[in-house]
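Checklist before submission:
- one chain only
- standard amino acids only
- sequence pasted in full

Submission:
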Amino acid sequence: MQTIRLRVNEKVYQNLMWFLRKFTKEELEIIEEDDTFTATQKELRQDLTQLENGEADFIDLDQLDQELENTLKRYEA
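Returned file contents:
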């Protein structure tokens, strides 16, 4: 499946959406871009850039386990 992004004038938006809704979910999926979508997309792009530049910090499973234990202890009290 391909993805396209369109900037649509308000005058034609309703007509375009009406037309696109004629397709089945298997044929076409409308992905609404809201503030949460945009913020998540920006964060993921930053993470990818860090990975590609070798700037990302990684932890092993033991460190993750310790972090989770510390977090649980903080909220148990």
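Reviewer check: The chain has one domain: 10-76.
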